[in-house]
Amino acid sequence: MSEPEMNRDNRPDDPCVDEMTLLLYVERQLDREAAQGVSLHTQTCTRCLTLLRALDRESRLLTRSMLEQDEPLPARLAEFHEQVKRNMQWIWGVVFGLAVLGVYALYTGYIEPWQRQFEQAGFGGSNLLSLMVFEGAFWKGWESMFSLFEVLAIMVIAASGLFAFRRYWRRGSALAVVVASLGLLLAVATPSSATEFRKSDTVTIKKDEVIKGDLFVTGNHVRIEGEVDGDVYAFAEQLEVSGRINGDLIGFIQSERISGVVDGNVRSLANNVTITGTVERNVAVWNQSFDLDPNGKINRSLIAGGQTVSLDGKVARDLLGFFENGTISGFVGGSVRARGKSLAIVSGAEIDGKTAFEGPKEPTVSADAKLASPVQFTKMEHKLHERGSGYYIWRVIWTGTFILFGLVLAGLMPKFATETVESAGQVGASFGLGVLVFFGVLIAAIIACITIVGLLVGLSSLMLWLVMFMAAEVVVGGIVGQWIMGRNDEFWPFFLRVVVGVAAVRVITSLPFIGGWAAFAVTVWGMGAISLALYRRLQPTLAPNIPPVPMSPINSPLPPNTTVGGL
Amino acid sequence: MSAPGKTEPIELIARARTGDTQAWGDLYREFAPAIFRFCRRAMPTREDAEDATMEIFMKLRDKLLQYDTSRSFTAWLYKVAANHCWDMLRRRKARHDKDMDDIEDVALECPEPNQLEKLIEERTGEEVRKALDKLGMRARMALVMRYYSDMSYDEIADALGVRRQFVGVVLLRARHELRQALGEGSAIAVGGAR
Description:
The complex is a heterodimer of chains A (567) and B (194). Chain A has 567 residues and is of the alpha/beta class. Chain A has four domains: 3-67, no CATH class; 76-188, no CATH class; 240-379, no CATH class; 389-538, no CATH class. Chain A has helices at residues 3-6, 19-26, 32-44, 46-67, 83-120, 128-134, 142-164, 172-188, 389-412, 414-424, 427-450, 455-485, 491-509, 515-538; strands spanning 195-199, 202-205, 210-212, 214-224, 227-229, 232-241, 244-245, 249-258, 261-262, 266-275, 278-279, 283-292, 297-298, 302-311, 314-315, 319-328, 331-332, 336-345, 350-351, 355-359, 364-365, 370-371, 376-379. In chain A, helix 2 (19-26) packs across helix 4 (46-67) and helix 9 (389-412) packs across helix 10 (414-424). The radius of gyration of chain A is 35 Å and the shape is elongated. With 194 residues, chain B is mainly alpha-helical. Chain B folds into two domains: 10-91, RNA polymerase sigma factor, region 2, helix turn helix motif (Rna Polymerase Sigma Factor, Chain: A, Orthogonal Bundle); 103-183, Winged helix-like DNA-binding domain superfamily/Winged helix DNA-binding domain (Arc Repressor Mutant, subunit A, Orthogonal Bundle), CATH 1.10.10.10. Chain B has nine helices and no strands. The radius of gyration of chain B is 18 Å and the shape is elongated.
């Protein structure tokens, strides 16, 4: 049959068959008479025959695509257990409940009473950070606070264990082993031999005593008169170092006094810090009152934050300060950058580098002070309730930064990015897990840093937490973008949705009054979504030897001249 | 709709019906991958598919005694799965997403046969699966029921709650949506909804 004879699309006595009829023919849904008509027509019409074949091939393509085993059966579905679903619901409720309970207990048990106490004591004007960390009365609740931290940390670790072993939940014995193991681990974990622990009401490292390795010390009164050949981690009401520490000193102290020598760095959260001795390296302190005595020496730089900072001694390099009232009468070998309420550079002061101060009023500079250059003063204006154009410009800049961050993340891990955004679509689960991660992981990581678990684990967790914190808004932006524009997992359309979503989220979080709360909710939500996606990634999957699909393949090809009985 | 060349596990089914947990476990292991894949194609997210798979098998176990052994077990299985997935989607009110409310008024432009052939030839399974994700719930559900689980028009009509004579229209419209999704970003464009 020649081509011209076959192509009879426009024959008035035999018009072409519509697509619907051809589809029904391919699907064997036409009755015998209609099917015969289609069959006869396609013998002579190239166009309809081509369309018929295309429809048939489309059916096969659909079936083949759907049958392809692109994803293995998830491990949680490997065995039938009907309690799983219920447990899933239950655990989210428990996780959320525990987290909320923890936050509530923290607030009502500690923060609120402290606030009242401080207000009664006339400290109502202090900022929250100062109230929580730097004030002296903080120590009264420290012991029980630490217990609460421990409980929360154990809860977080236990919850992680439960999630990791969720697959085996139906086996009570396995669950018991997991929980018992965690408990045992925490109970019997021993410190490395290089670390010495001292805990007592009064701890004294005597003058002729030498401790080889790190020292972890807790107590009301701690005195280091001897030598510690390592780092010192101190949690105490009073700490006095008159001996020598060959490593760093890390302290959470009410009153700290260093009259001896610290060869390393000093990093402290304390109420009062006084240095009359020598610190060979840097000092970073956050406190109510910091005093570098005329005999005190810091051989590198000083970062000081707090209410009052007095510098009578010598700082070999730079000073960076954030304080209400600062006084400099000693020597600073480098530059001074400070921000605060007031700064006085008094007689006897010597600053060899630049001096810059930002505050509500100009610093007072004594005529006897020796400065390498005049003080650069920047007036700080309070714009607590005003949001000028600068604020919004910065919001736009930060929005762009977040979007770029999202682009980098999506580019580096496109599949994980899609999964994370998909997880964010499960708002309840993400939010529940987010509350736990936001508070729990942070607390657990801090405890890990300062307790037996170790700095490596703690700092790694903190880093992960920080990355999740930064990425949370991008993730939520992704799901919001999908809600606005519809779902699309292709890279650039996906990224476009992230852009739109992040912009929308930034608008909401910039609103007055509710913006802060919205930002918090977005962060918690996003962190939960990332955690959920991470968890799913870490979930083991079955090997690909899955049984074949127990169903028939698509119908065999239909020759165009075949007619099939319909209904 | 039983699998050709593969006999249905009649004995296993019979034992499972008597409450034999071992037999039920074996039955589950045999059919769970296929049902999960069905759900994965029909539901919007992997998590939804996992949940749906579990729930379907819980339902199946409860209903196992109601199964008519003279009919295909696989067909019955997919019917339960399809009904469950569609119920889940409907409960979420996602059913109207991209779907027409009145399918009787549908008018579709006939595609250019050669272009359609070219489009089909050039697309991979993965691209089709991605395109499926972009379809409306009803369209996707219809395609999955027909081309994954090989359900009849009657069964599809029953599951979707439409008249039997409109199943073809639903499928045709779904194909047009799919072609549109497949053709996005490429020079090939075939007939779509008018």
